[in-house]
Structure formats: C-alpha cells, structure tokens
Write a structure and sequence with these properties.
Radius of gyration: 19 Å
Bound molecules: pyridoxal-5'-phosphate
Strand content: 15-25%
CATH architecture of the largest domain: 3-Layer(aba) Sandwich
Helix content: 40-55%
Largest sheet: 6 strands, mixed
Length: 331
Amino acid sequence: MKPNLKIADSMLDLIGGIPLVRLNRVGQESGAEILVKPEFLNPSGSIKDRIAKRMVEEAEAQGDLRENYRIIEATGGNTGTALAFVSAVRGYDFVAYVPDKIADPSRVAIMLAYGCEVVTVDTDAYEAARTGESPADSDTGAHGGYLELGGRQLCLDAEREQPDVWYARQYSSPANVAAHREETAKEILEKTDGALDAFVASVGTGGTLFGIAQALKEHDPDISVWGVEPAGKPMVGDPGAYPLIPDISDGIIPDILESGLIDGVFTVNDEEAIGMAHRLAEREGIFCGMSGGANVEASLRLAGTLGSGKRIVTVLPDSRDRYLQFEKYTT
Ligand SMILES: Cc1ncc(COP(=O)(O)O)c(C=O)c1O
C-alpha cells in the first residue's frame, strides 16, 4: 500500500505495505524476538496478491496478455484467489485448475465469489499416470509443488489448443520471485531498519523464500534464510526426490537448489502447523492459515538453535478463513 494514500485508483493499490508484528505470548520461552508479517491483510487475503498483480502487469507490458484473453493457472488456492481478484479488477476471465485434494469448499467459494471458473483436477489419477503407481498415502501430497503438477499439464494443453489464453506459470515466473525480492523483502528491511538475524518461509513455488533470500543476503550475507515444508513430501529438503519435468516443475525450485542461498529446511507436520495456528489465534489474536502456523513453529525451533536475543522474521501467507472446513498444512 502506498504511504498516506487517501483514494486508491483500484483495490490493486491496497496490496502490500504490511508491517511486522512482535509475538508477545507465543514462544516467549525461546528468548528470541519473533516478528511475523501478516500477509493475509492483502486485499484477497494472501501474500499471493503481490505476485498475481506483478505477473499480470508484466504480461500486459510484454504483450503476452491482451484484452479479452483468458488467464489460466494451476493453483492449490491462494494464487487462484489472488488471480481471480486481480482478473476481476482488470476485466479478464480466469480459470483456476485446483487439485481435488485441497479443493476446500471455503477456498473454492472465495475464488468463485470473484467470478472465476474452477476446474477440479484429479491429483491421484495424474500421479498414477506419471509414476505408473497409485499414490500410497494421500496425506503426503500437501506440498503445492507436487499437488499442482496435474493442473500444470492441463494448463499446458489448454495453452497449446486454445486461442487467446495466457498461462501465468507461477512456479517458474521471474515476476513471482521479483515481487518478493523487490517488494516483500524491501518492506522487511525497511521495517526492521535492516536489523534481523534470520528469515523463515514455507515453500510452495519457492517464490517467497527465493525472492526474499536474494534481497536479504545482498543486504547482509550473515542473515540466515530457512525454508519450511510439509513433512510428507519435502522438495527443497529432499532434492533427490524432486521430479524434474520440463515445463511442469522446472523453474524456481531448481533455481533455489542451485543458488546455495538457503541455510536449511525445516519439515513440519499437520498437527504442529495446525496446533500453532490455533495458538496464534487464541494467544495473539492472529487469524492465520496453517502455513503461517508452520512458519512460526519452525521459527521457534530455529530460535532454540540460534540462542537468545536473536531477531527472526517470518511471514503469515494467508488467513484462516480458507481452512474453516478442512484444516491442513498446504503450500
Ligand atoms: C498457504 C500458503 N503458504 C505458503 C505458500 C508458499 O509460497 P510460495 O509459492 O511463494 O513458495 C503458498 C503458496 O504456494 C501458500 O498457498
């Protein structure tokens, strides 16, 4: 958000400009100062408003997205909500390809409310076709990077077969990383006067972690940067298992793995992420989603290893309103 803004030209001007909040009652025993960035305060309720706006604006500027085009994207939820919101403001039709496993009714209802179309993707059928085996455990696939693979293939097909379509491709979009490097990280550095010891963020596409890591390490290479992933299927935390499929999973995660910018990865399970999200609501009045809970859980674990007196910054990517019927740590 622009400082001192009185009348916004559109809702897009209200994206960003979000301060940090100190935790007062959760994690006191850690001796660290934990600062959270409530990114659910963005207009459609998540950090993804930043990348949706930037991806659309850059595609318009490059002539890839034009009037009367349809936007398509494979998304577990927040990028869908954010692109639905930005499409409503800019006048585009938008189709979200949402994995059935995390097509939570509240999340889909939010997307539909912005006037977009939702196509549900059969995640197990795609995974079985890709690997030749039926997925063993439906609980292990909560990582957006895995869940979205089937939808990404459908988007590729639609892009090839249909006219006037722009496929956003958040998983490999330079605009995704740039939004966090140039905007989210800038806010963190401004609001801390550049004084922080560590940054922690959950990985879906990896855009948040990679963009912010680039800016923080450039500011001060001693700031450590940590990823957080659902325990079932880490990607950055288990590079050997990462399925590198051209046009489907190349892009930001492989770039992160090659960059050497990340100091480590925490894995957090559903129970820990959900438990922390509940504690944040009950003890801090912070109504964040489960990946925000996972980020704070990982920040407290990190605090235990860094020693007292350190300042750790993390993000709360979305609001708990989209998990009211189905609580799960998804990225
Ligand atoms: C709830 C939630 N948390 C965290 C993330 C991770 O963000 P990123 O895609 O920037 O890695 C996402 C998106 O993928 C998300 O939807």
